[in-house]
Specification:
By secondary structure, the protein is α/β, with parallel strands linked by helices. It is built from 17 helices and 12 strands. The longest helix is centred in the N-terminal third of the chain and has 22 residues.
Length: 425
């Protein structure tokens, strides 16, 4: 396939995906669907177009609204315009190529009558760029590329840093590696990366931050279980659990299993890993097998104790609870548009139920680590404070790594929250 035709094909498939996301489908589901169906378009090209468009979703929506002379277009045509505007602003393609291939993509989408409209709108964008910036500048969603309610929540929670957090949410995420200490030494693995011209630097005890992301298959030793991809913020969990040999440990919301694996790499413990989705449990088992690790994996709702608990208390409990994922939104740019304001209190209510249930399976003098990938206080400090106030014997401990509970997104890591809670004897 020639490069020009390849772009038209990529725009067609990206437009179909983004149109589905606009009515509530998730980007992860769409990428899985494309993988199952097969596609002539490289996955990397689709990820660039879909992620890039969704990171700028508020902006491209506003641009189409300003430029359209005939009202809102057909949903597929509108999604094609969003993806094409991203392609124009990305600088990855010549402007004339994008316009030409977007028009060709109309035919691939069977929207032949939209060719002239798409051509005119994209050329209008190129002519009117300067004035368009002034016209959409007052639109908060266009400027910050997040929903208005999300912007307001961050501004209330972080009055001095909210713009920085919004910018981080629109950025490309870092790629961090965790070296499996049971199969490789960090220094030696780092040297192997250098031998293959893969630039990385060490952060923490087991983490290597890549200068540029690359496919997992290119990582030396990945198939042999020597290394995993895991954000540096997520790697805090195993360190903060204060693990010791022989402990009985529960990872209550474990899939996809990165933290479960890290715990098992760190200490020889009796690990139970739960997840409510059986399919995710299967994937977790495969990942542990790749790493040479073993856990008792159960497809179960952690709040329904009679369905999985044998009555023997755990020394350590990891509660990596479902959350808004507001700290990792740059990895999942569809989430900020799929979420609704009511979702945050709904998550907080579910998180409280999980904590109350897991407190019952923790032994006296044991420790529970509460973790989210959120930056919203309603799911973090406010929720933990309320739990410690009501739970019998609960006391908050300083985190063993000496860091703050809330890590905000940065160039090195995503946004994660950790709280260590002890059950007094």
């Amino acid at each position: 396939m020639k490069p020009a035709a390849a772009l038209a094909q990529a725009l067609r498939e990206a437009a179909r995906m983004v149109a589905r996301i606009a009515v509530g489908r998730s980007l992860a589901d769409e990428l899985d669907r494309i993988a199952e169906e097969g596609s002539e378009t490289p996955r990397s090209a689709l990820i660039d177009l879909t992620h890039g468009t969704l990171r700028r979703y508020g902006r491209v929506q506003a641009l189409v609204g300003e430029l359209s002379r005939r009202g809102r277009p057909d949903a597929l045509v509108e999604a094609l315009l969003w993806c094409s505007l991203y392609a124009l602003e990305s600088g990855r393609y010549a402007e004339y190529t994008v316009v030409d291939q977007a028009v060709r993509a109309c035919a691939l989408l069977e929207r032949w009558s939209a060719k002239g409209y798409v051509n005119a709108l994209l050329r209008g964008f190129l002519r009117e760029r300067a004035s368009l910036e002034a016209r959409i500048g007052a639109d908060m969603e266009a400027r910050y590329q997040h929903p208005r309610w999300w912007i307001e929540m961050l501004r209330d929670a972080y009055p001095e840093r909210w713009e920085e957090l919004l910018a981080a949410g629109n950025s490309h995420p870092p790629m961090c590696l965790r070296v499996n200490r049971r199969r490789a030494h960090l220094a030696e693995y780092h040297a192997r990366l250098r031998e293959q011209a893969i630039a990385a630097r060490r952060i923490g005890e087991e983490a290597l931050l890549l200068e540029r992301p690359l496919p997992m298959e290119r990582l030396p030793g990945f198939a042999q279980g020597e290394v995993s991809v895991q954000d540096a913020g997520a790697q805090r969990a195993a360190r903060c659990l204060q693990l010791a040999e022989g402990q009985r440990v529960l990872d209550a919301c474990a899939a996809p299993g990165g933290k479960t694996a890290h715990i098992l790499e760190t200490a020889t413990v009796a690990m139970t890993a739960l997840d409510a989705d059986p399919a995710r449990c299967v994937r977790m088992a495969r990942n542990l097998e790749r790493l040479g690790l073993t856990a008792l994996i159960k497809p179960a709702d952690c709040t329904r104790l009679d369905g999985w608990w044998d009555g023997v208390p755990f020394d350590r409990v990891l509660a990596d609870v479902p959350c808004s994922a507001s700290g990792v939104v740059r990895r999942h740019p569809d989430l900020k548009w799929l979420r609704r304001p009511r979702d945050v209190p709904a998550f907080a209510a579910k998180q409280a139920v999980i904590l109350d249930a897991l407190w019952q399976v923790l032994r006296r003098d044991g420790k529970l680590l509460y973790v989210t990938c959120s930056v919203f206080p309603q799911e973090n400090e406010q929720l933990v404070g309320a739990f410690v106030s009501r739970a019998p014997g609960a006391s908050r401990l300083p985190l063993p790594d000496g860091g703050p509970a809330q890590w905000l997104p940065s160039a090195e890591h995503d946004g994660f929250y950790c709280a260590l809670i002890k059950k007094e004897a």
